[in-house]
Design goal:
With 446 residues, this protein is mainly α. It has four domains: 152 residues, P-loop containing nucleotide triphosphate hydrolases (Rossmann fold, 3-Layer(aba) Sandwich); 72 residues; 89 residues, Zinc Finger, Delta Prime, domain 3 (Up-down Bundle), CATH 1.20.272.10; 75 residues, no CATH class. Helix content is 52%, strand content 6%. It has 21 helices and five strands. Strands 2-3-4-1-5 form a five-stranded parallel β-sheet, sandwiched between helices. Helix 9 crosses helix 11, helix 15 packs antiparallel against helix 18 and helix 17 runs antiparallel to helix 18. The radius of gyration is 32 Å and the shape is elongated.
Length: 446
Protein backbone atom coordinates (compact mmCIF):
# COMPACT_ATOMS: atom_id res chain seq x y z
CA UNK A 1 0.00 0.00 0.00
CA UNK A 2 1.43 3.39 -0.92
CA UNK A 3 1.96 5.80 1.95
CA UNK A 4 1.28 9.51 1.72
CA UNK A 5 4.74 10.25 0.41
CA UNK A 6 5.55 7.44 -2.01
CA UNK A 7 5.06 7.53 -5.78
CA UNK A 8 2.85 5.05 -7.61
CA UNK A 9 5.82 2.89 -8.70
CA UNK A 10 7.14 2.66 -5.14
CA UNK A 11 10.01 5.11 -5.54
CA UNK A 12 10.57 7.75 -2.90
CA UNK A 13 9.93 11.22 -4.24
CA UNK A 14 11.24 13.23 -1.29
CA UNK A 15 13.87 14.98 -3.37
CA UNK A 16 11.12 16.57 -5.46
CA UNK A 17 8.97 17.63 -2.54
CA UNK A 18 8.78 21.05 -0.91
CA UNK A 19 10.64 21.44 2.37
CA UNK A 20 7.34 21.43 4.27
CA UNK A 21 6.75 17.84 3.10
CA UNK A 22 10.30 16.63 3.75
CA UNK A 23 10.30 18.07 7.25
CA UNK A 24 7.26 16.16 8.47
CA UNK A 25 7.99 14.15 11.64
CA UNK A 26 8.30 10.36 11.50
CA UNK A 27 7.15 9.76 15.08
CA UNK A 28 4.83 11.43 17.55
CA UNK A 29 7.86 12.39 19.66
CA UNK A 30 9.08 14.53 16.75
CA UNK A 31 5.77 16.38 16.45
CA UNK A 32 6.20 19.94 17.71
CA UNK A 33 3.19 21.75 19.16
CA UNK A 34 -0.39 20.70 20.03
CA UNK A 35 0.98 19.21 23.25
CA UNK A 36 -2.43 19.64 24.92
CA UNK A 37 -3.72 16.97 22.51
CA UNK A 38 -0.73 14.95 21.36
CA UNK A 39 1.33 14.81 24.56
CA UNK A 40 2.39 11.52 26.14
CA UNK A 41 -0.39 9.78 28.03
CA UNK A 42 -3.10 11.73 26.22
CA UNK A 43 -5.83 10.14 24.11
CA UNK A 44 -4.21 10.34 20.67
CA UNK A 45 -0.94 8.96 22.00
CA UNK A 46 -2.80 6.04 23.60
CA UNK A 47 -4.83 5.42 20.44
CA UNK A 48 -1.64 5.12 18.39
CA UNK A 49 0.11 2.96 20.99
CA UNK A 50 -2.79 0.47 21.05
CA UNK A 51 -3.61 0.86 17.34
CA UNK A 52 -7.25 1.53 18.22
CA UNK A 53 -7.93 4.75 16.34
CA UNK A 54 -11.58 5.95 16.41
CA UNK A 55 -13.22 8.05 13.72
CA UNK A 56 -12.48 11.72 14.27
CA UNK A 57 -12.43 15.12 12.61
CA UNK A 58 -9.41 17.31 13.24
CA UNK A 59 -10.15 21.00 12.83
CA UNK A 60 -7.46 23.63 12.82
CA UNK A 61 -5.83 26.46 10.89
CA UNK A 62 -3.46 25.81 7.96
CA UNK A 63 -0.06 24.47 8.94
CA UNK A 64 -1.11 23.35 12.43
CA UNK A 65 -0.31 19.65 11.89
CA UNK A 66 -3.57 18.04 10.74
CA UNK A 67 -2.11 16.12 7.78
CA UNK A 68 1.03 15.36 9.77
CA UNK A 69 -1.12 13.60 12.37
CA UNK A 70 -2.66 11.51 9.58
CA UNK A 71 0.83 10.60 8.36
CA UNK A 72 1.86 9.47 11.85
CA UNK A 73 -1.23 7.29 12.06
CA UNK A 74 -0.44 5.80 8.62
CA UNK A 75 3.07 4.92 9.81
CA UNK A 76 1.99 3.41 13.13
CA UNK A 77 -1.23 1.52 12.35
CA UNK A 78 -1.59 -2.07 11.20
CA UNK A 79 -4.82 -1.09 9.48
CA UNK A 80 -4.91 -0.46 5.75
CA UNK A 81 -4.47 3.29 5.45
CA UNK A 82 -6.14 5.02 2.51
CA UNK A 83 -5.56 8.72 1.82
CA UNK A 84 -7.93 10.86 -0.23
CA UNK A 85 -8.29 14.55 -0.96
CA UNK A 86 -11.85 15.88 -1.03
CA UNK A 87 -10.92 18.08 -3.98
CA UNK A 88 -10.70 15.16 -6.43
CA UNK A 89 -13.00 12.64 -4.74
CA UNK A 90 -16.61 12.00 -5.74
CA UNK A 91 -19.50 10.00 -4.28
CA UNK A 92 -18.64 7.02 -6.50
CA UNK A 93 -15.05 6.98 -5.18
CA UNK A 94 -16.19 7.13 -1.57
CA UNK A 95 -18.68 4.32 -2.06
CA UNK A 96 -15.98 2.23 -3.71
CA UNK A 97 -13.62 2.82 -0.78
CA UNK A 98 -16.41 1.82 1.62
CA UNK A 99 -17.13 -1.43 -0.25
CA UNK A 100 -13.42 -2.29 -0.43
CA UNK A 101 -13.12 -1.66 3.31
CA UNK A 102 -16.12 -3.96 3.93
CA UNK A 103 -14.53 -6.65 1.76
CA UNK A 104 -11.21 -6.42 3.64
CA UNK A 105 -12.93 -6.63 7.01
CA UNK A 106 -15.27 -9.52 6.24
CA UNK A 107 -12.88 -11.60 4.11
CA UNK A 108 -9.49 -10.95 5.70
CA UNK A 109 -10.27 -9.33 9.06
CA UNK A 110 -8.32 -6.20 8.06
CA UNK A 111 -9.36 -2.83 9.34
CA UNK A 112 -9.34 0.28 7.11
CA UNK A 113 -8.58 3.87 8.02
CA UNK A 114 -9.77 6.39 5.43
CA UNK A 115 -8.15 9.81 5.68
CA UNK A 116 -9.89 12.64 3.80
CA UNK A 117 -8.01 15.90 3.58
CA UNK A 118 -10.12 19.07 3.34
CA UNK A 119 -13.22 17.06 4.17
CA UNK A 120 -15.29 20.26 4.30
CA UNK A 121 -15.14 20.31 0.49
CA UNK A 122 -17.31 17.18 0.27
CA UNK A 123 -20.93 18.07 -0.42
CA UNK A 124 -23.84 16.67 1.59
CA UNK A 125 -24.47 13.74 -0.77
CA UNK A 126 -20.80 12.76 -0.73
CA UNK A 127 -20.69 12.90 3.06
CA UNK A 128 -23.84 10.78 3.22
CA UNK A 129 -22.00 8.06 1.28
CA UNK A 130 -19.58 7.67 4.19
CA UNK A 131 -22.22 7.49 6.90
CA UNK A 132 -23.21 3.76 6.73
CA UNK A 133 -19.58 2.62 6.68
CA UNK A 134 -18.60 4.80 9.62
CA UNK A 135 -21.78 3.95 11.53
CA UNK A 136 -21.24 0.18 11.25
CA UNK A 137 -17.49 0.38 11.93
CA UNK A 138 -16.56 -0.94 8.49
CA UNK A 139 -13.98 1.82 8.26
CA UNK A 140 -12.46 4.43 10.51
CA UNK A 141 -12.77 7.94 9.15
CA UNK A 142 -10.24 10.68 9.79
CA UNK A 143 -11.13 14.04 8.30
CA UNK A 144 -9.00 17.20 8.27
CA UNK A 145 -10.56 20.61 7.84
CA UNK A 146 -9.71 24.28 8.20
CA UNK A 147 -13.42 25.17 8.30
CA UNK A 148 -15.79 25.00 11.26
CA UNK A 149 -17.15 21.40 11.23
CA UNK A 150 -20.48 22.50 12.72
CA UNK A 151 -21.05 24.50 9.51
CA UNK A 152 -19.46 22.19 6.95
CA UNK A 153 -19.92 18.59 8.16
CA UNK A 154 -23.30 16.83 8.25
CA UNK A 155 -24.55 16.57 11.81
CA UNK A 156 -25.17 12.82 11.41
CA UNK A 157 -21.57 12.20 10.34
CA UNK A 158 -20.12 14.63 12.88
CA UNK A 159 -22.01 12.95 15.72
CA UNK A 160 -20.25 9.66 14.92
CA UNK A 161 -16.79 11.20 15.04
CA UNK A 162 -14.73 12.69 17.82
CA UNK A 163 -13.74 16.32 17.26
CA UNK A 164 -10.11 17.27 17.79
CA UNK A 165 -9.34 20.98 17.69
CA UNK A 166 -5.84 22.14 16.77
CA UNK A 167 -4.73 25.70 17.50
CA UNK A 168 -2.02 27.75 15.87
CA UNK A 169 1.48 26.54 16.71
CA UNK A 170 3.27 28.55 19.37
CA UNK A 171 6.58 30.31 18.71
CA UNK A 172 8.61 27.58 20.40
CA UNK A 173 7.14 24.93 18.11
CA UNK A 174 7.76 27.09 15.02
CA UNK A 175 11.40 27.61 16.06
CA UNK A 176 11.91 23.84 16.42
CA UNK A 177 10.28 23.24 13.03
CA UNK A 178 12.60 25.82 11.45
CA UNK A 179 15.65 24.19 12.99
CA UNK A 180 14.62 20.84 11.56
CA UNK A 181 14.00 22.43 8.16
CA UNK A 182 17.39 24.16 8.19
CA UNK A 183 19.15 20.85 8.90
CA UNK A 184 17.30 19.16 6.04
CA UNK A 185 18.36 21.92 3.65
CA UNK A 186 21.97 21.82 4.82
CA UNK A 187 23.10 20.22 8.06
CA UNK A 188 26.09 22.60 8.24
CA UNK A 189 24.02 25.73 7.68
CA UNK A 190 23.80 28.31 10.46
CA UNK A 191 21.45 31.27 10.67
CA UNK A 192 24.41 33.63 10.65
CA UNK A 193 25.39 32.48 7.17
CA UNK A 194 22.11 33.86 5.78
CA UNK A 195 22.41 37.41 7.04
CA UNK A 196 23.24 39.69 9.94
CA UNK A 197 19.49 40.21 10.12
CA UNK A 198 17.65 38.27 12.89
CA UNK A 199 16.07 36.02 10.29
CA UNK A 200 14.70 33.23 12.48
CA UNK A 201 12.76 35.64 14.69
CA UNK A 202 11.32 37.39 11.63
CA UNK A 203 10.19 34.11 10.06
CA UNK A 204 8.59 33.01 13.34
CA UNK A 205 6.76 36.32 13.52
CA UNK A 206 5.52 36.16 9.93
CA UNK A 207 4.56 32.50 10.10
CA UNK A 208 1.70 33.44 12.46
CA UNK A 209 1.58 29.96 13.99
CA UNK A 210 1.63 28.17 10.62
CA UNK A 211 4.39 25.54 10.42
CA UNK A 212 4.03 25.06 6.68
CA UNK A 213 4.27 28.77 6.05
CA UNK A 214 7.39 28.98 8.23
CA UNK A 215 9.11 26.25 6.20
CA UNK A 216 8.02 27.80 2.90
CA UNK A 217 9.50 31.13 3.97
CA UNK A 218 12.73 29.40 5.00
CA UNK A 219 12.90 27.55 1.68
CA UNK A 220 12.40 30.80 -0.24
CA UNK A 221 15.22 32.42 1.72
CA UNK A 222 17.46 29.40 1.13
CA UNK A 223 16.79 29.50 -2.62
CA UNK A 224 17.86 33.16 -2.71
CA UNK A 225 20.90 32.31 -0.62
CA UNK A 226 22.02 29.51 -2.96
CA UNK A 227 21.25 31.43 -6.17
CA UNK A 228 23.47 34.30 -4.99
CA UNK A 229 26.42 32.02 -4.30
CA UNK A 230 25.76 31.53 -0.58
CA UNK A 231 26.61 35.12 0.25
CA UNK A 232 25.04 37.21 3.01
CA UNK A 233 21.59 38.43 2.01
CA UNK A 234 20.62 42.08 2.38
CA UNK A 235 17.47 43.05 4.26
CA UNK A 236 15.85 44.05 0.94
CA UNK A 237 16.53 40.59 -0.53
CA UNK A 238 15.15 38.94 2.59
CA UNK A 239 12.07 41.14 2.47
CA UNK A 240 11.48 40.18 -1.18
CA UNK A 241 11.68 36.48 -0.31
CA UNK A 242 9.46 36.83 2.75
CA UNK A 243 6.69 38.67 0.89
CA UNK A 244 6.57 36.31 -2.10
CA UNK A 245 4.51 33.71 -0.21
CA UNK A 246 0.81 34.10 -1.13
CA UNK A 247 -1.86 35.06 1.38
CA UNK A 248 -4.05 32.33 2.92
CA UNK A 249 -7.05 34.63 3.01
CA UNK A 250 -10.13 32.82 1.69
CA UNK A 251 -12.86 35.06 0.30
CA UNK A 252 -15.56 32.46 0.93
CA UNK A 253 -14.39 30.53 3.98
CA UNK A 254 -14.53 31.06 7.72
CA UNK A 255 -11.33 33.13 7.61
CA UNK A 256 -13.17 35.63 5.43
CA UNK A 257 -15.88 36.12 8.04
CA UNK A 258 -13.39 36.20 10.92
CA UNK A 259 -11.28 38.87 9.21
CA UNK A 260 -14.28 41.00 8.26
CA UNK A 261 -15.52 40.71 11.85
CA UNK A 262 -12.14 41.84 13.18
CA UNK A 263 -12.11 44.72 10.67
CA UNK A 264 -15.54 46.02 11.70
CA UNK A 265 -14.92 45.55 15.43
CA UNK A 266 -11.61 47.40 15.19
CA UNK A 267 -13.35 50.42 13.64
CA UNK A 268 -16.17 50.20 16.19
CA UNK A 269 -13.53 50.04 18.93
CA UNK A 270 -11.78 53.17 17.58
CA UNK A 271 -8.54 51.38 16.64
CA UNK A 272 -7.51 52.74 13.21
CA UNK A 273 -4.24 50.77 13.29
CA UNK A 274 -5.89 47.34 13.52
CA UNK A 275 -8.61 48.40 11.08
CA UNK A 276 -6.03 49.38 8.44
CA UNK A 277 -4.15 46.12 8.96
CA UNK A 278 -7.23 43.92 8.47
CA UNK A 279 -8.22 46.02 5.45
CA UNK A 280 -4.78 45.43 3.91
CA UNK A 281 -4.98 41.68 4.65
CA UNK A 282 -8.34 41.41 2.88
CA UNK A 283 -7.27 43.46 -0.13
CA UNK A 284 -4.06 41.43 -0.47
CA UNK A 285 -6.16 38.26 -0.38
CA UNK A 286 -8.27 39.50 -3.30
CA UNK A 287 -11.29 40.84 -1.42
CA UNK A 288 -13.50 43.19 -3.43
CA UNK A 289 -12.94 46.82 -2.34
CA UNK A 290 -16.63 47.50 -3.02
CA UNK A 291 -17.53 44.78 -0.53
CA UNK A 292 -15.49 46.62 2.10
CA UNK A 293 -17.06 49.94 1.08
CA UNK A 294 -20.57 48.48 1.56
CA UNK A 295 -19.60 47.29 5.02
CA UNK A 296 -18.34 50.79 5.86
CA UNK A 297 -21.63 52.37 4.74
CA UNK A 298 -23.55 50.08 7.10
CA UNK A 299 -21.09 50.71 9.92
CA UNK A 300 -21.36 54.49 9.47
CA UNK A 301 -25.05 54.31 10.38
CA UNK A 302 -25.01 51.39 12.79
CA UNK A 303 -22.01 52.34 14.94
CA UNK A 304 -21.59 56.11 14.44
CA UNK A 305 -24.97 57.41 13.39
CA UNK A 306 -25.75 60.93 14.53
CA UNK A 307 -22.66 61.14 16.74
CA UNK A 308 -21.05 62.29 13.47
CA UNK A 309 -23.59 62.68 10.62
CA UNK A 310 -20.70 63.20 8.17
CA UNK A 311 -19.66 59.56 8.59
CA UNK A 312 -22.37 58.22 6.27
CA UNK A 313 -21.56 60.93 3.72
CA UNK A 314 -17.89 59.97 3.69
CA UNK A 315 -18.64 56.24 3.51
CA UNK A 316 -20.93 56.71 0.50
CA UNK A 317 -18.44 59.11 -1.11
CA UNK A 318 -15.64 56.54 -0.75
CA UNK A 319 -17.84 53.90 -2.38
CA UNK A 320 -18.28 56.23 -5.36
CA UNK A 321 -14.58 57.13 -5.37
CA UNK A 322 -13.53 53.46 -5.53
CA UNK A 323 -15.98 52.85 -8.36
CA UNK A 324 -14.60 55.89 -10.19
CA UNK A 325 -10.86 55.45 -9.53
CA UNK A 326 -10.55 51.67 -9.41
CA UNK A 327 -7.70 49.74 -7.83
CA UNK A 328 -4.98 49.94 -6.63
CA UNK A 329 -5.48 53.70 -6.01
CA UNK A 330 -8.93 52.97 -4.58
CA UNK A 331 -7.19 51.49 -1.53
CA UNK A 332 -6.04 55.02 -0.64
CA UNK A 333 -9.67 56.16 -0.61
CA UNK A 334 -10.62 53.17 1.53
CA UNK A 335 -7.85 53.98 3.99
CA UNK A 336 -9.20 57.51 4.39
CA UNK A 337 -12.68 56.21 5.14
CA UNK A 338 -11.42 53.55 7.54
CA UNK A 339 -9.30 55.98 9.56
CA UNK A 340 -12.06 58.61 9.63
CA UNK A 341 -14.74 56.18 10.78
CA UNK A 342 -12.43 54.58 13.35
CA UNK A 343 -11.74 57.98 14.92
CA UNK A 344 -15.34 59.21 14.93
CA UNK A 345 -17.33 59.39 18.18
CA UNK A 346 -19.48 56.27 18.34
CA UNK A 347 -23.21 55.82 18.86
CA UNK A 348 -25.60 53.00 18.04
CA UNK A 349 -28.63 54.95 19.28
CA UNK A 350 -30.23 55.16 15.83
CA UNK A 351 -29.76 51.41 15.36
CA UNK A 352 -31.19 50.64 18.79
CA UNK A 353 -34.08 52.99 18.06
CA UNK A 354 -34.78 51.06 14.86
CA UNK A 355 -34.81 47.74 16.72
CA UNK A 356 -37.21 49.09 19.34
CA UNK A 357 -39.42 50.48 16.58
CA UNK A 358 -39.41 47.12 14.77
CA UNK A 359 -40.51 45.31 17.95
CA UNK A 360 -43.22 47.90 18.55
CA UNK A 361 -44.39 47.62 14.93
CA UNK A 362 -44.59 43.82 15.27
CA UNK A 363 -46.78 44.22 18.37
CA UNK A 364 -48.91 47.00 16.89
CA UNK A 365 -48.78 46.54 13.10
CA UNK A 366 -51.93 48.60 12.38
CA UNK A 367 -51.55 51.98 14.09
CA UNK A 368 -54.54 54.16 14.79
CA UNK A 369 -52.92 57.35 13.49
CA UNK A 370 -54.21 60.50 15.23
CA UNK A 371 -56.72 62.33 13.00
CA UNK A 372 -54.88 65.61 13.29
CA UNK A 373 -51.80 64.34 11.43
CA UNK A 374 -53.60 62.31 8.78
CA UNK A 375 -53.64 63.38 5.16
CA UNK A 376 -56.91 64.97 3.91
CA UNK A 377 -56.91 64.96 0.09
CA UNK A 378 -60.74 65.04 -0.21
CA UNK A 379 -63.57 67.18 1.24
CA UNK A 380 -65.17 64.10 2.73
CA UNK A 381 -62.00 63.30 4.68
CA UNK A 382 -61.81 66.89 5.91
CA UNK A 383 -65.39 66.58 7.22
CA UNK A 384 -64.39 63.38 9.02
CA UNK A 385 -61.69 65.34 10.85
CA UNK A 386 -58.67 64.24 8.86
CA UNK A 387 -55.96 66.88 9.33
CA UNK A 388 -58.18 68.92 11.66
CA UNK A 389 -56.63 70.67 14.64
CA UNK A 390 -53.17 70.15 13.11
CA UNK A 391 -50.70 72.67 14.52
CA UNK A 392 -48.22 73.76 11.85
CA UNK A 393 -44.85 73.76 13.63
CA UNK A 394 -43.47 76.76 11.74
CA UNK A 395 -46.32 78.98 12.95
CA UNK A 396 -44.80 78.80 16.43
CA UNK A 397 -41.87 81.02 17.38
CA UNK A 398 -39.99 77.98 18.72
CA UNK A 399 -40.91 75.80 15.73
CA UNK A 400 -42.47 73.34 18.16
CA UNK A 401 -46.12 72.81 19.03
CA UNK A 402 -47.73 70.43 21.53
CA UNK A 403 -49.26 67.68 19.47
CA UNK A 404 -49.94 63.95 19.56
CA UNK A 405 -47.94 62.09 16.92
CA UNK A 406 -47.95 58.57 18.38
CA UNK A 407 -51.13 56.48 18.38
CA UNK A 408 -53.06 56.74 21.64
CA UNK A 409 -52.31 53.16 22.74
CA UNK A 410 -48.52 53.66 22.62
CA UNK A 411 -48.39 57.34 23.53
CA UNK A 412 -45.23 58.19 25.43
CA UNK A 413 -43.05 55.41 23.97
CA UNK A 414 -39.43 56.59 23.62
CA UNK A 415 -37.44 54.87 20.89
CA UNK A 416 -34.46 57.14 20.25
CA UNK A 417 -32.13 57.95 23.15
CA UNK A 418 -29.13 59.94 21.89
CA UNK A 419 -25.84 59.64 23.70
CA UNK A 420 -23.70 62.45 25.09
CA UNK A 421 -21.02 61.81 22.43
CA UNK A 422 -20.21 63.91 19.39
CA UNK A 423 -23.09 65.63 17.62
CA UNK A 424 -25.60 63.51 19.54
CA UNK A 425 -24.81 65.61 22.58
CA UNK A 426 -26.40 68.54 20.69
CA UNK A 427 -29.34 66.36 19.64
CA UNK A 428 -29.88 65.28 23.23
CA UNK A 429 -29.89 68.92 24.36
CA UNK A 430 -32.33 69.84 21.56
CA UNK A 431 -34.76 67.08 22.52
CA UNK A 432 -34.66 68.15 26.16
CA UNK A 433 -35.32 71.74 25.11
CA UNK A 434 -38.16 70.64 22.79
CA UNK A 435 -39.75 68.64 25.62
CA UNK A 436 -39.55 71.67 27.90
CA UNK A 437 -41.25 73.86 25.25
CA UNK A 438 -44.09 71.37 24.82
CA UNK A 439 -44.50 71.03 28.59
CA UNK A 440 -44.58 74.83 28.99
CA UNK A 441 -47.15 75.28 26.20
CA UNK A 442 -49.34 72.56 27.66
CA UNK A 443 -49.22 74.22 31.07
CA UNK A 444 -50.15 77.61 29.53
CA UNK A 445 -53.04 75.95 27.75
CA UNK A 446 -54.30 74.45 31.01
Amino acid sequence: MNDLFTSANGQKIEQYQPLAERARPKTLDDFFGQTQILGKGLLISEYLKKDRVPSFIVWGPPGSGKTTLARLISLSTKSVFVSRSAIDTGAKDLKSEGEEAKNRLYRFGEKTILFIDEIHRLNKAQQDCLLPYVETGVLTLIGATTENPSFEINSALLSRCQLIVFGRLDNEAIEKILERGKEILDENLSWKLFSNFELKKEIVKRASGDGRRALNLLENIYSYFVSLGRTLLTENQIEEALTSIPSQYDKSGERHYDTVSAFIKSIRGSDPHAALYYMAVMLRGGESPLFLARRLVVLASEDIGNADPRAIQIAVAIKDAIDFVGMPEGAICLAQAVTYLATCPKSNSSYLGLRKAQVLASHFPNPEIPLSIRNAPTKMMEKLGYGGDYNYAHDSESGITPQKFMPENILGEKLYSPTQRGHEKNISAYLQWADSIVTSQQQDKN
